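User: I'll paste a sequence; please echo it back and then give the predicted structure.

Assistant: Echoing your sequence first, then the prediction.
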Amino acid sequence: MDLFEEWIMKDNELIECALTDKSYKSVYSKVHHKELPENKTNFKLATYGDAILKMCIMGILYDNKIEKPTEEKKKYESDKALVLIAKKYNLLDRIKTNGERVKSYDYEHNKTKKGNKCKYIATCVEALIAAIYINTRNIDKLKKLTNKWMEYIDQNSWLILISFFI
């Protein structure tokens, strides 16, 4: 069990927020007869997690003396890569939504003119990264996890590269 899997199994307030999509507000208000506070969804955590992920990726690429790290980084931080990571942990079963969100990891078939319907899955992964960091304050463990994810993405890169040519 890795760090990510360990934390998504925990009963933790920040993990709960990270797993709560903003669309869940409608469900929450029907059940609790009050508004779900903005800080109880993953929106702000995702921004923080995105920055942490970028820092980890760039640190790894820098340490490995990659010549064009900015270009290489794109492969690992893309929404498509994050959806692939979410699939590895079966996150769709854990994300709280309004029930109308797409329940598929099929990034390519969920494209619309307004974006990709799988974006909320990638947002959840970013929010979980932030929640784990806030709870542990251990960037080294997150960097090791990110390195394993990068290897996983490389092993499954044909799934990601296809999207750049479609």
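The radius of gyration is 16 Å. Strands lie at 111-112, 115-116.
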